[in-house]
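Researcher: Please predict.
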Amino acid sequence: MTRNPLLAALYGGLLQGVGIGLFIKYETSSGGTELLGRLTHHVMPFGSIATHVALFDGIVVIVGAFALENPENVLHALILIFVSAKVSDLVVMGLSKAKMCYVITSFIDLC
């Protein structure tokens, strides 16, 4: 589609994010780092499953950076991983993401 590596990283992150998001949403597995992210999310429930997948993908890229001759490729791969994680969260949560907080107190304010 393009010879521009930055655009390729963005397109790749978009497509990968949709795929991983669908795997997470419908509770299936590709057998890759998505499965590892799902397992570690049950043990350490910080962030989302997509965040865990992004962390493992980032570790793989950084460890693999020693074999690559062009450090620019590593940066493009990290951009792809970031976009993929954000799109995955968007696919799982949807566009109307909201948070709610209940405050329960015995303090009565009589203004």
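Model: The chain has one domain: 5-93.
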